[in-house]
């Protein structure tokens, strides 16, 4: 069952009772403040994206370095364990 036939009379009523606009929609522009606002939002979005990428990269590098350090410690401990077993 579709919802469209039930909404059709409601939409017809709304569209037929909507007053005409009091301005010419072809000549309405956001003006310089609108362009500045959009530019500001775009610039902030770009900067936030760059910051996010930097933070993710830094987190990945930290995890990689922790893995390398853990591998070095395990290798050192294994080498030290072999030396002790050779001495006995």
Strand content: under 5%
Number of strands: 0
Straight-line distance between termini: 85 Å
Q: Write down the Rg.
A: 33 Å
Number of helices: 2
Shape: elongated
Order of helices and strands: HH
Structural class by SSE content: mainly alpha
Which runs of at least 5 residues are low in confidence (pLDDT < 50)? none
Query: What share of the residues lie within helices?
Result: over 70%
Q: What's the mean pLDDT score? A: 86
Multimerization state: single chain
The major pleated sheet works out as:
none
Please provide a written account of the structure.
- This protein has helices spanning 4-16, 31-87.
- The model has no long low-confidence stretch (mean pLDDT 86).
- The termini are far apart.
- It has two helices and no strands.
- By secondary structure, it is mainly alpha-helical.
- It is 80% helix and 0% strand.
Give the helices and strands, then pairings.
Layout: H1 4-16, H2 31-87
């Amino acid at each position: 069952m579709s919802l469209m036939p039930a909404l059709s009379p409601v939409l017809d009523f709304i569209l037929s009772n909507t007053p005409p606009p009091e301005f010419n929609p072809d000549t309405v522009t956001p003006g310089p403040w609108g362009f500045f606002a959009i530019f500001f939002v775009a610039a902030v979005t770009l900067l936030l994206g760059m910051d996010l990428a930097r933070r993710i990269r830094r987190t990945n590098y930290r995890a990689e370095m922790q893995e390398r350090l853990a591998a070095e410690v395990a290798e050192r401990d294994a080498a030290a364990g072999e030396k002790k077993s050779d001495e006995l």
